[in-house]
Design a protein that fits this description.
Blueprint: E1 3-10, H1 33-61, E2 68-72, H2 74-83, H3 85-96, E3 100-102, H4 112-115, H5 117-135, E4 141-143, H6 151-159, E5 164-167, H7 171-174, E6 182-185, E7 192-195, H8 198-205, H9 220-228, E8 236-242, E9 246-247, E10 250-251, H10 256-269, E11 273-274, H11 277-283, E12 289-290, H12 306-309, H13 312-322, H14 325-330, H15 334-344, H16 346-350, H17 365-386, H18 393-423
Parallel strand pairs: 1-2, 1-8, 1-11, 2-3, 4-5, 5-7, 6-12, 9-10
Antiparallel strand pairs: 6-7
Length: about 425
């Protein structure tokens, strides 16, 4: 039986304000709250909330047979809690239907998997904790920010206990292989890999309302017919896209919501089911392994990291940022920790791209770079004020080891206190 695996990425970044050289050392608040709220509210009202209502209707009309997955970045969840709490409630309602799966990802939608494995692991745990606290479900499947993947990153994810990871269809990796199968990691075979069908995904996300497209107009009947006519042995069709495609890039007047509502009916008519990513990993056997020695992503035709690492500006910003990761981990100051997460968001570095500054609000890549580096300069000064960069690496490592040992000792003592309190006999009051 063929199954469709729907997954939607939900991510919005906190936008930086215009931060000038003369603000360094004087102003430690880096964000344009007005611009962030204004853009977010528009997006929630025209896309996210209507799309959630559409998903809920698809679940009801199919008697719970329609399923889909969401990957919502931790930063987005923070913004929704602040500016659009009704959207959190809407996702909670979907979660209660048990026909929605939430995926794990780095909290800050960051490039930490490429630059700092320890930071990557911390952010993944932080994100899973957040998802569980909000929706009562702990993620069991993983997708990296921007679908970034390599054998090395896959090994990190496998070491964290995940059994399923989502990746993109890169032609130089797949070769003749179809994305419509389950694969496995090159040397960690217990990690299953699901591969995005980029053609069928982009037909909805980018071409749905394109009148010049040869297949316009796209109907649910036509779309399901394409899926039905894939080779019979191809048993999973992974349709993944950014959630803003539904209602924002493809506007309501294009008929996108009606198209989606018809998908479950047309699929069931053709005996095509729906499946969670984690469910696919459990139920479907891998047909082969995939070797990905160099990182790939879901961006552009090259499917590489050039949108975030393609020029000297981006590389300088990222190298300077991650050079202080160990010092930041030592800090206990909450505002500094918060800024550390916000400054890692991949969007900041894409705005510096000469090639594809998608979603930028800057006049140029250089403008984005200068603004970010001014912010980063102030941030680095704050970090160095607590742990000066003059401290040698060996000394710093010893300090980290001492602090970690102290924290472990405190945790053990707290457990011992809890045991003693639980074992303490209860005194009964004497009665006359």
């Amino acid at each position: 039986m063929k199954n469709i695996c729907f997954y939607f990425e939900v991510h919005q970044a906190l936008r930086l304000k215009r931060y000038r050289f003369f603000d360094i050392g004087d102003n430690h608040y880096y964000y344009d709250d007005f611009q962030t709220e204004d853009y977010l509210r528009n997006l929630v009202e025209e896309a996210y909330l209507p799309a959630n209502r559409t998903i809920a209707e698809m679940i009801r009309s199919s008697n719970g047979k329609f399923k889909c997955a969401f990957s919502i970045s931790g930063i987005s969840l923070d913004l929704f809690e602040q500016y659009a709490p009704e959207l959190i409630d809407s996702f909670r309602e979907l979660a209660q239907s048990n026909t929605v799966e939430f995926l794990a990802e780095p909290y800050a939608h960051s490039l930490a998997s490429v630059f700092n494995p320890q930071e990557f692991e911390l952010q993944v745990k932080m994100h899973s904790d957040k998802i569980e606290s909000l929706f009562g479900k702990r993620p069991t499947a993983f997708r990296n920010a921007e679908l970034i993947y390599s054998d090395e990153i896959g090994e990190l994810v496998a070491n964290m206990g995940y059994k399923v990871m989502l990746i993109d269809e890169a032609r130089h990796i797949m070769g003749w292989k179809s994305p419509n199968f389950v694969y496995r990691h090159a040397y960690r075979p217990k990690l299953k890999l699901l591969v995005r069908n980029y053609k069928l995904s982009d037909d909805i996300a980018f071409r749905f309302s394109d009148h010049s497209w040869k297949d316009f107009p796209l109907t649910a009947e036509k779309y399901i017919h394409w899926i039905k006519n894939t080779p019979p042995e191809e048993n999973i069709i992974n349709i993944w896209m950014g959630y803003e495609a539904i209602g924002h890039f493809q506007r309501q007047e294009s008929g996108i919501f009606d198209f989606l509502k018809a998908i479950p009916y047309r699929a069931m008519e053709q005996e095509i089911g729906f499946i969670f990513p984690s469910e696919a990993g459990r139920r479907i056997e891998a047909v082969d392994s995939l070797s990905v020695p160099h990182p790939i992503s879901w961006s552009g035709h090259e499917k590489d990291l050039t949108p975030w690492l393609g020029n000297d500006l981006q590389q300088e910003a990222l190298n300077k940022l991650y050079a202080v990761s160990e010092r930041v981990h030592l800090c206990k100051e909450h505002p500094l920790k918060y800024d550390w997460l916000m400054l890692q968001t991949s969007d900041h570095f894409r705005y510096m791209s000469h090639k594809d500054p998608f979603g930028t609000y800057y006049e140029s890549a250089y403008d984005a770079f200068i603004n970010y580096m001014n912010v980063l300069a102030d941030f680095l000064d704050r970090v160095n004020a607590q742990y000066p960069d003059g401290i040698e690496n060996e000394e710093l490592n010893e300090l980290i080891k001492t602090i970690n040992n102290q924290e472990k000792q405190i945790a053990l003592l707290e457990q011992e206190i809890a045991k003693l309190q639980a074992a303490k006999p209860v005194c009964k009051r004497k009665t006359n």
